[in-house]
Fold these 3 entries.
Entry 1:
Amino acid sequence: MNALSSGGCELTAALRFVFGRNILRVEPMDDFSQLMPLQLLAVHARITDELRSRGITRSVNNPTGDLAEYLFCKAFGWKQAENSNSNVDAIGLDQLRYQIKGRRMTRHNNSRQLSALRDLRDARFDFLAGVLFAEDYSVNACRDHPLCRCA
């Protein structure tokens, strides 16, 4: 039985820890419809910086992948690998290596396909861990799977 056999319970608990208890009742902070595009981008930049300063994200890119890594590590006590570590995102307490993928499904794109696994033939990870987020970043599903080394 794998670490995620109970579904998204641990990740949901980690998500509540990060975002607070009422993660499903997020009220809009402002009416953004009156802002100009440059103002919207400035708000986005400030939010990105704040997530990074809190240690939730590690880059200024789309937060989905960084959030997935952060939540798996918080939920299971894994240690995040250095950013330069090729295709290993975390190390488990048992020293198993994990590649972590996240996907945010939206009303505009509900694909469940995770991003590519690069250099799979030379993979340095033992397990692939994946999480599917809903549009509001709540956890829809998560799984881990051992790497199958096929000839």
Entry 2:
Amino acid sequence: MGIIPKETQKMPEWLNVVFYVSLLLLLISIIGYFVLSGYHNKAVKYSKDLDLELASQKTDARLAMEKEVLGYKDKINDFTQILDSRLKGSEIFESFQKICHPKVSYSQFNLDVRKRMISASGEAQSFSVLGQQLLIYQQNPLVESVDVSQISIDKKGKIGFSLSLNLKSQ
């Protein structure tokens, strides 16, 4: 039961090193924050000064020119929209060629792009071939309506006809 003083245990040396390194990193981080904050404030001030300088350099003539250029830009965009929405004749010819029956030949072909209408005259081998051709047109998603007129039979037994196709707007 004696009171004998015991030696106090010393902290390991590596723990002291870790403490001082951590303290050093904390001080470097705090100093770095203030340095970077100062650079940021300088950059913001420099940016504002440049904006003011650019604003002071805008003359009436330059503003008028910018307005004119923006007007041309709007006109070009409008023209682009018109070109994109127009019906392309080359696409119509390609589509018409794909849906033609092999035993039907056309002697006349008129395309009215504004009315979206095709008028054609031709000749079919028989009434059944003409019927098949009309059915192909009616089932095509580009064709809105088909009107056939002036059906005739020539001396060779071929069927002459005129038709008009109204195309759907896309």
Entry 3:
Amino acid sequence: MDSPSRSCEDRASVARGLWHRSESNSPGGCYFSFNWAIDRQTSAKLVDAITLAHVEGYDRVNLLLSSTGGLLIDAHYAVECLAAVPTELIMWNMSVVQSAANMLFALGVQRYATPGSSFMFRQTAFEGVAGQRTSEKEVREQLRQIEIADRRSADFIAATSCCADFRRTS
């Protein structure tokens, strides 16, 4: 049980396992590790932790990222929320940044990759529900949603990189 006298950093550490504070409010800011697939819970925890760092007075946050990706809708949620927090985000690829995690990585104003780390991009996909019949109309709508998600992701990555003229080459 959390004691009322615990600091925000301590509560964040216990609750989320994300908070890593440098010894002082150094120019490096604070550090968070994110070593999960992106889903509703992990994206919310990440947004909470970065928001908490801002509330604690950090204007620079280093995100130590290693993720195989996950759900694109939850990556978009995290990106939109984090873009609204007035904190400079510095992204570090610590091992792998794949699929939807590339959206988070692209959000950084500075981006670094450790030796041996890798990036992987995949096409957007969806899983059908086992045992559920699907009509042609529903399949066409799913395809339309995939195309919208692909375009949104490509536009974001292009806008946050040196590739302003990026075009999808399926």
